[in-house]
Predict the structure.
Amino acid sequence: MNLQTAIDRLKVRLGDAVSSPAEFRGETTLTVSREKIVAACELLKKEGGFDMLTDLSGVDNYGEDPRYEVDYLLYSLAQHCYLRLKVRVSEEDMVVDSVTSVWRGADWHEREAFDMFGIRFRGHPNLKRILMWEGYPHHPLRKDFPLAGIPAELPETAVNADTVRTAPMLGGPFVTSSGTRSSIRREPRQFDTLAEQQEKLTHPTKKESV
Amino acid sequence: MTQHLETGFDPKVEGRDVIVTSVDAAIDWVRKNSCWPMPMGLACCAIELMAAGASRFDIARFGAEVMRFSPRQSDLMIVAGTCVYKMAGVVKRVWDQMPNPKWCIAMGACASSGGMYRSYAVVQGVDHFLPVDVYISGCPPRPEALLEGLMAIQRKIAHEKAVVNMKKGNGPGISKRISGPIIVRGEYAPKLKG
Amino acid sequence: MTTKHEMELIDSAARAQQVMDEEMAGEKMVLNMGPQHPSTHGVLRVVLELDGEEIVNAWPDVGYLHRGDEKIAENMTYTQFIPYTDRLDYLAPLANNVTYAYAVEKLMGMDVPPRCKYIRVICAELARISSHLLGLGSFGMDVGAMTIFLYTFREREKIYDMAECISGARFTTSYTRIGGLAKDMPPEFVPMLRKFLKEFPATIDEVDKLLTRNRIFCERARGIGVLPKDVAIDIGVTGPCLRGSGVDWDIRKSHPYSSYEDFDFEVPIGSVGDSYDRYLVRMEEMRQSVRILQQAIDNLPDGPVNSPDAKILLPDKEAVLTKMEELIHHFINVTEGINAPPGEIYFSAENPKGELGFYIVSKGGGTPHRLKIRAPSFVNLQALPIMAKGHMMSDMVTILASLDFVMGECDR
């Protein structure tokens, strides 16, 4: 079915939840209410033939209310046409239903929208940060976040003192000496924890000498 | 069987196949001509690094074609590309794993100073956490500029006091004449013809 | 006695097997691959769950090259953002420039002259060849064929020479402008391109001879990393990865832009969706690009290369230095940027990696309110867990190489 028929059917099924289409430069945009977005997407995918989710992005309209919006760009491979759906999200209640049940590809897009704006997606299988590190406290693409950033705690590397188990032969007779004395001391795997490293470095035992 | 070695000294005086030099000079010569790079190729500069390793610019002439991705087997870390905060811990960890003696080249504008990315996620220069020896400007620097940077590292190594460093347990970098980091202006590196 | 002894033995063997199964079933190793790794083509981290040598699960972890391009775009004028588009897919910078220029021109509602469109096609196809060459070179090198890397880089150097001739920089060209190009094609470019087009098919044939029927390459690539058609569409995979899975979709054919409708070329489609198919699709795409380039350079129209709208483009330097109106235009264009109408558009083009799209929300003025980059590699990488499951550790390298992603564009 073509674009106009799909939009008509959507309006018939969902009524007021779907606005009238806005056109700009040959593109059609529909604003859908937050509660009905999954139903709209399912309808468009199964009956409208919009089998590909090209893009899902968040936008921050600072100063407007509702402040955020989530834009879904759908594509129909058979009809070669795009359709944009827009969901307005207010600042107080930044939750939208996830469309990962409709298209698998929405997974990472929604994670990115969460990472950059803080919009939570209900029903997402793994809503974690994707571009910034776990534990980064801010949402960078918000308009009130400065471009140069706000200082934050640096990420831990995956293999560090807390995640690594003691190697069974640690400290034993088979330590390889790669370089000079000072470089052995600097080797990160030599010690299990930072505390141990600092203790051993300030009070070197006789075994340390090479 | 007579073989005449062309080494620029008189073999009759010292005997055949014997060169007299200082240990420092010998060690430095060996080190500088076999500097195995550890390419920390992060972004676009990595492509120019690969081009420098390919046949046209041929980093193998300088003994550095052995791009060891293992830090344990390399001497020279070339940080090529933008270092972001998420990656900085990893770069530092890999640097720590490299055994002494080791040197570092910050290739390109992003590695030297953050480049044109003055944003929340980019470290404004890897010298915030790595001891950089040579900075190469350019975005990306031409492979000739990278080779110029490599030659600058070689000049730096050539003036090191290798034996003193080994005895004292210090790392490299304590050299007689060239002590600070060298800045290579990428646009002034001579271009190859043809 | 013998029977009891035998029974004991059988029982203990079965018992041993049972114990082994129970223990082995719980023994899965979690291995961290990257972000610094020779085969991950950039800073990608993959967390693998391995059962012995077999991959049970693979979780890609991206963001190690997130430079904040989208936030930077909100602080730059449209023209100032062009160098940032170079560094997105840094294997094909010219293609990104072309896509971005068309996106902003769509927002402005303006058209460019035919000569500009043809030159942009030439740029985009050269970028496609360059990107596929590097993809092939790294694929070969990762699988073990080191020679391919050197052959393809030799050809890429020729493309770099042409890029340097046309734009001044080998690599990060920033060649297009909103409404035209930085400067017209210099006369030396045409003989260089013709010479390249004469010599290049020989190199593809050489690589073809070395790899396509090579027993080792076939064993390593056939049946590895199969991506079924419906899964690919569901995820939103685009580009050679989608076409390798059998979906006939190419933006150059379905939504022709930049006068692609004038050119006669074919779009290669795979059948199985494995790494070998993706390799074949890329090889054939390079041959088709040569075809397009030949037609473009033969039929290159004359005329101006920049759109005549003086408000968008910088006026002539002589006029700027002598006349008042042009001076004011130049000043406003450089400091405030072009005056875009309020509205939002999405424009996408067939980049070598897939569909690169720019979703620009403008509230008027010279800087975008929001610029979202729909990066093909970001979406294609979601297919990695599906492609890697059940294969062995060393097949992971093949799968990563055949996906041909770029972290600069994935993380932006």
